Amino acid sequence: MVNRKELNPEASAQAAFGARLRRLREERGWTQDHLGALVGCTGRHISAIETGRKSPTLPFSHKADAALNLTGTADSFEREWREIKHGNLLEGFPEYVGYEGRAVEIRLFQVGIVPGLLQTAEYAQALANGDVRRGAITAEQAADRVAFLAERQTALLRERPPMVLVVMDESCIRRPIGGRKVMDEQLQHLALFAELPNSVLQVAPFDIGERRPFNLPVNLLTLPDRSMVAYAESHAQGHVDRESAAVLPLLTGYHQLQAASLSQAGSVAMINEVRKGTP
């Protein structure tokens, strides 16, 4: 083929994206113009993405997945785009987010900070700014992280939103983040979240002691086919698991945690008491 540029998928994540797009297109016998027509762009734009001259976008990735029948799969271009865009996130987390956007039930447990899906923009920005000051991430990565969180939160605004069950360790509401105004608005946001018809919010108080089954954050998702996905992370790594042998013990532990935690009414009362005492 004249002027065909050889691709090196090992050069970068973006190069790997383009090389795989070309391979899947050619396996189907499609021209760049044909794929472009399917995804709503020109063949020249397809060429630029395949050769790494242009970066893929999330809308493009969605359309490519639809054209290539990869939507919602572990091999989707959406997942690959997230890994390119958010490479500073823990391993496994972009995969988890793909499942989160389709879940019908979301169960969360968090220690130390408010769960991401419930964070206000100002609270999330304060956390990201702290990472920048410590040199853990760049300012650009911080902005990407906050924008990514806002995108995740749209999962709660679907036409048929998921049921969201949240248990927070008491440390989440007592640890001051971002100053008085930011923390006050965050606590108010939690109280309003508890009023939603598709939410359950509980606080695991400090005096739960050894009855608290988890020492690290745990996320459990129920997908439309009723299968479950678990996500847990340490400081350095996240891990997604769909095997029932691993997921079911976490679900049992989550039920035990809920039983030992404050009721939703009691949790909101504690949140409001902390809010009144916010210095």
Keywords:
single chain; six-stranded mixed β-sheet; alpha/beta; 2 domains; 434 Repressor (Amino-terminal Domain); 279 residues; Endonuclease, Chain A; 49% helix
**Tally of individual domains:** 2
Major sheet: arrangement of strands: 3-2-1-4-5-6
Spatial gap, N to C terminus: 70 Å
Helix content: 40-55%
Q: So, CATH architecture of the largest domain?
A: 2-Layer Sandwich
Strand tally, please?
6
Which descriptor suits the 3D outline? elongated
Largest sheet: 6 strands, mixed
Rg over CA atoms, rounded to whole Å, is: 21 Å
Low-confidence stretches: none
State the name of the first-level CATH class of the largest domain. Answer: Alpha Beta
Structural class: alpha/beta
CATH superfamily of the largest domain: Endonuclease Chain A
Order of helices and strands: HHHHHHEHHEHHEEEEHH
Classify the beta-strand content into a percent band: 5-15%
